[in-house]
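Lab notebook, bench 4. The sequencing result for the construct came back, and we need a structural model before the next group meeting so we can plan mutations. Quick request posted to the team channel:

Model the 3D structure of this chain.
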Amino acid sequence: MKILVVEDELKLAEYLRKALTENSYVVDVAHSGTEGRYLAIEGHYDLVLLDVMLPGLDGFAVLRELRRDKHVPVLMLTARDKVEDRVKGLQAGADDYLVKPFALSELLARVQALLRRGALPTPGQDSTVLKLADLELDLVRRKASRSGQRLDLTAKEFTLLTLLLRRHGQVLSRTALAEQVWDMNFESNTNVVEVAVRRLRSKLDDPFAKKLLHTVRGMGYVLEDREP
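Done. Here's the predicted structure in token form:
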């Protein structure tokens, strides 16, 4: 597996290169957005670790240009932990988002998860349109539909569904959803995630025979197309 790290902090870039190499990955490193864009588009990588704040071109610009040509999985790294930044990255085509500082174990787990499931759209599919079974999400027009029927989602429900769909097949804990969608630390007495999932399910699944949003008891939620 070959990974491209685009990171302008030299010490962090070297740390990531060494850690990934020690875990049997082949690693290339770029220290600017311009260099990263060139390598990502011209090279052949299984995954790109992309910093947001870069000289030349920022990570969002690199991601937009990359998505015009390729569908390689992208994990964005950033010190900017606002929900708006994470949403912007996901809407631009990122497959996952990790806020600095992060634990190496978490980074490796996310890298492995992205490589394992591929995080690739179906051939010919526009990277701004996500699909699973009869569900379709248009990230540019911010529209969601099932079997051609429009789903009337709130802004938070759309963000929640985008995250679940980008990581379909992967169980997401309530903590992960709370942190990435609501920018809050999860507390056991807070039921905001359960309420939001229940409302989303009422629009996404209740009117349709096939259910896509599943609860995994004791672990969290997963969006997947299960066999009957």
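Confidence is low (pLDDT under 50) at residues 119-126.
Will bring this to the meeting.
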